[in-house]
Automatic annotation (TrEMBL):
Its EC number(s): 1.5.1.2
Gene Ontology BP terms: L-proline biosynthetic process
Main location: cytoplasm
Catalytic reaction annotation: L-proline + NADP(+) = (S)-1-pyrroline-5-carboxylate + NADPH + 2 H(+); L-proline + NAD(+) = (S)-1-pyrroline-5-carboxylate + NADH + 2 H(+)
Amino-acid positions noted as binding NADPH in the UniProt annotation, renumbered to this chain: 49
Pfam families: F420_oxidored, P5CR_dimer
Keywords on record: Amino-acid biosynthesis, Cytoplasm, NADP, Oxidoreductase, Proline biosynthesis
Location of this chain's protein in the cell: Cytoplasm
Native species: Pseudolysinimonas yzui
Listed name of the protein: Pyrroline-5-carboxylate reductase
Pathway(s) where this gene product acts: Amino-acid biosynthesis; L-proline biosynthesis; L-proline from L-glutamate 5-semialdehyde: step 1/1
Amino acid sequence: MGGAILAGLVDSGLVGEGVAVTNRSVAKADAVRMPGVDSYALDATPDANRLALDGARVVIVGVKPAMVPDLLAEVAEHLAADAIVVSVAAGVTTATMEALVPNAVARAMPNTPSLVRRGVTGLAAGSRIAPDQLAVARAVFETVGAVIELDEDRIDALSTISGSGPAYVFFLIEQLTGTALRLGFTLDEARLMVEQTFLGASELLAASDADPAELRRRVTSPNGTTMRAIAVMEEADLAGMFDRATAAALARAKEMAADAAG
């Protein structure tokens, strides 16, 4: 995810030069090295975080949730007074961040389609961040897709929809591909049919003024084959399944928040 955001920033021209990133290993640092970016490896440069923070206006924390508190405690004294600290770690609250650094903070929850500039990022402000600072943070994530500003008490719920959502879509594609294989199609044929159908349906929705329910009705002829298939799906209670799945994801997010808070 950090690499997607970095590529989006560089491609947008928003920052020009002056971007610095750190990774644990030389191999990972080399993988994101690009023009205008200083890429440091902690293995080779132990004070890489301090070097990267020198003059930084926006600091994006992209480590695993359990590592965020220790990292913020380590870098707090090296942050510029006007630096904005944004975490993309699930479950780590702005209150936890504000207890560790004196800076303005925010939480962001991007999703993996950010890799192709089709991301959705939820952005929640901490208690100390000013509107102009939040606008800067928003501009960073707009380089990789759409941004939704929301109250922090809703960001975990957003993570169960747009954050985890790509996995749900991939799982549906995986299952429908399996069905195509069981109907006798080759793997190449099955992938072409299923993946292009999902892509085409998404693009049709984006280009249409109609909502998904209306577009579904247009495909579903009375007493036709699609209606029979939709009836089976309705009997399976997909709505209830998605409610249960997102509830499970939300419960896990709350557990992670409790772990990060100590």
